[in-house]
Sequence to fold (105 residues):
Amino acid sequence: MKPESVEFARVVAEIVREVPEGKVATYGDIATLAGFPTHARLVGKILGSIGTASSVPCHRIVNAQGRTAPHWLEQRALLLSEGIEFTSSGHVDLRRYRWVPPLPE
DNA sequence: AGTTTGACTGGAG
DNA sequence: CCTCCAGCCAAAC
Fold:
């Protein structure tokens, strides 16, 4: 099997779980933090395989444009309930809500 | 082993 | 703001 794929999926879940309420992260960010900057699409696939029932707040993950997933209509409502504001065109204001991981001094 | 697909990205029209 | 296009890379067929 491929330990890399399993590890990647595991790390992605770990990172997404660290995203605080009221904040969002992009697929590219998660992929980069996981150690694979070029696998943004894989992040989406993994989150999809995880499912919303998981302890991973996958609804806080949006694309680099601050837009919600095209095939997941409920996501927008979830973000709104966490206090995240959307612009008139329906995208998250990344300028204010993008999550920045805690830096180790 | 070749082709298609995708919860992406950034730029162009 | 919207849609389309090309680049990207691993998983699924």
Q: What stands out?
A: The CA atoms of residues 26 and 101 of chain A lie 12 Å apart.
